[in-house]
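Morning run. Coffee first, then this:
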Amino acid sequence: MTHNKDTVKSNSELLLATEGVSKSISSKTILQDINLKIHEGQILTLIGPNGAGKTTLIRIILGILRADKGSIYLRPSLRIGYMPQKLIINSTLPITVAGFLRLVRPRKDNEAANLLERLGINHLKGQQITSLSGGEMQRVLLARALLRDPHLLILDEPAQGVDIAGQSKLYDLINEIRAEKGCGILMISHDLHVVMSTTNEVVCLNHHVCCHGKPEDISNDPAFLELFGASSSNNLAIYAHHHNHEHDMTGQIKSSE
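And here it is:
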């Protein structure tokens, strides 16, 4: 697998493209022939069941893991801000929120202060990072990603640990930042109602790309219900798609024979 910065040059708005990315671990297929593109100002959301390979794909894009096959194009000089699903910090490590954020590439103090104020966490600067609630930690991780002044934000379940009231505000803020800065956003989310309201494109991943499309294509769909469970239709918007294949209990594609 290669991180190719020269293959795709015809579209200056293109930030990231994956072509045929595949990954297996212990003879189990985690990702198979994944193709996707992200442009400036676009929000692309990955959805899929647990274990579908979403976080693995993110780690390959970031260079944390190596794919077995395929290539990745990153626009030259691309800055990526990454917000992990969670960050485990040793409880004995004495570091404040301000100290943690200073580990990122330095920015002007007033810019950092304005960002923390906007995220509603300026009052946390002096607190030990290990004392934060789940929602507070998610905002700190978002601040850390934004302090890189990214062209592309990669967010892995950004609302994890955030209460329901705070989730909508957090996603609204993410959308505002995208609109202001023109950055692209690649997001993993299980909050499908949020996917409906904030996303330009949805990619349904279950080891391979089952389907992809725009939010206006969303409706109740039997294939989605089979993949995610019928109960999800009671309170979530449904992303409509049509499979030409079936999965077994492990998520692998069933043989047509």
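The mean pLDDT is 79. Good start to the day.
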